[in-house]
Design brief:
Elements lengths: L1 H42 L15 H21 L3 H26 L4 H20 L3 H18 L1
Length: 154
């Protein structure tokens, strides 16, 4: 009984050794095929057409808008009397943005919570569309609210 199990173990060991001895051979064959394909590709002529497109139409507009924004920001900064408060508020906003981003990232890793929050968002979007966008009087009221807010901001 013992000699039978030893014989089976020897057969398995021989099979494993045979497979292990074939792996380098297969690797060499694959490397040879790859080298042959690379050498064939290198000997083939390569035709490349390089195209470059230069667009200058919007470039001047973009520069002028950027310059206008910078001058407006500089003028507003000069008009500001309480500069430390503005800097503190800007830094607080940045910290709040970073904390919120990391919190949402952590919530997204909780199983099923991301899917549930997506369903809540889809449901509320449908509710909002039904209450504000479906009928004409509601749409007109919403556009009036949006215009009022825009006029207050700008």
């Amino acid at each position: 009984m013992l000699s039978g199990s030893v014989q089976i173990v020897n057969q398995k060991a021989g099979a494993v050794a045979a497979v292990a001895s074939r792996k380098p051979t297969l690797a060499r064959r694959a490397a040879a095929r790859k080298a042959a394909s690379v050498s064939v590709n290198r000997s083939a002529p390569v035709f490349k057409r390089e195209r470059s497109v230069r667009v200058n139409a919007g470039n001047d507009e973009l520069k002028s808008k950027a310059q206008d924004l910078l001058t407006t920001a500089a003028d507003k900064w000069e008009e500001t009397e309480d500069k430390p408060t503005v800097v503190t508020l800007a830094l607080a906003g940045l910290v709040t943005l970073i904390v919120t981003s990391s919190l949402l990232g952590a919530l997204d890793k909780v199983p099923f919570l991301g899917g549930i929050l997506e369903l809540v968002g889809i449901g509320y979007s449908a509710y909002f569309a039904y209450n504000n966008l479906l009928f004409t009087p509601d749409r007109e009221e919403l556009t009036k609210k949006v215009d009022d807010i825009k006029s207050k901001i700008l």
